[in-house]
Amino acid sequence: MIRGAICGDVIGSRWEGAAAQDPGFELLGTGCCATDDSVLTAAVAEALLDGTPVAAALRRWGNRHADAGYGALFSGWLTSVSDRPYGSFGNGAPMRCSPCALLATGIRHAEALAVAQAAATHNHPDALRATAAAAGAMARGARRADLPSLMERYGIAVPELAALRASSIFDVTATGTVGAAAACVAAAESVEAAIRLAVSLGGDTDTTACVGGALAEAVFGCDIALWRRVGPHVPNDIAQIAERAVAAGERTQTAPWGRRLLDRLVVAPRLIRSARDALDA
Ligand SMILES: [Mg+2]
């Protein structure tokens, strides 16, 4: 999950804003780097692992990696004195949710953690719903064929790949990105194939591939060979947090502290409740 997310971000990074292309592109090369998707995924992982408020972790990591390519709203939040969320429905929320699925003790717990971390900045109902959908699907380890119907249960449309490629729009919405990422995983047979499909759609390639890579890892298992290939492009602090999260994730199922993770993400309980009510409806 977290390794698939970082692989997708790095592989997609040099194609951000590109037009749709053949999935057979050269996988890694000059210009590949870890961007905001990886940096803020590491931030959420650290918040969960160390029990720090997620907003503080996002700020710490965001300022340490100041040139990671943040959106305008997040950049403004990073430098503002207020920790208030700014109502975004952008894909910044689902792109950083993979540690929630990795460290959760179950599906509902993963959804709740994902919604809680999203609500620190992206407190729009669409962002919360899409983030819960991504983390819930990751925690389920659903079969790829079941992804479209599963996403539908969260109100996320999963378009046909051909339609996505034909439109090739730069979709930075949380719902659009999670739907596109799920479409790629549903049509792929490996983590690498899912990431290639996500990048081939063009547009916000690093984020679609980040969400797709995380989801693909939940479906197909970790591609260690791919993780090693991507490794030279990943800053040490991000790689170290990812490895810590993976090791902790292997223990979470039996660890009592897994249940306490939600309490650590002290953000907007009212938003979390309303998101969970929406999911239950
Ligand atoms: Mg990015």
Task: Give structural notes.
This protein is an all-alpha fold and 281 residues long. The protein has one domain (2-24, 33-280): Orthogonal Bundle (ADP-ribosylglycohydrolase fold). It has 16 helices and no strands. α1 packs antiparallel against α12 and α7 (125-140) packs parallel to α12. The chain starts with a helix and ends with a helix. Mean pLDDT is 90; it is low at 254-259. Bound molecules: magnesium ion.
Provide a concise account of the structure shown.
With 281 residues, the protein is mainly alpha-helical. The chain has helices spanning 2-13, 36-50, 54-64, 72-79, 98-103, 107-118, 125-140, 147-153, 161-167, 174-186, 191-200, 205-220, 224-230, 236-252, 261-264, 269-280.
Second rung of CATH, namely the architecture: Orthogonal Bundle
Give the beta-strand count.
0
Give the distance, in angstroms, between the N- and C-terminal Cα atoms: 28 Å
Task: Could you tell me the CATH topology label.
Answer: ADP-ribosylglycohydrolase fold
Secondary structure category: mainly alpha
Chain-averaged pLDDT: 90
Rounded to the nearest angstrom, the radius of gyration is: 17 Å
Q: Which residue ranges are poorly predicted, with pLDDT under 50 across at least 5 consecutive positions?
A: 254-259
Quaternary status: single chain
Quickly count the helices: 16
Domain count: 1
Which range does the strand content fall in?
under 5%
Q: What order do the SSEs take from the amino end to the carboxyl end, as H and E?
A: HHHHHHHHHHHHHHHH
Ligand list? magnesium ion
Largest sheet: none
Q: In CATH, what is the class? A: Mainly Alpha
Outline type: globular
What is the helix fraction of residues, given as a range?
A: 55-70%
CATH superfamily: ADP-ribosylation/Crystallin J1
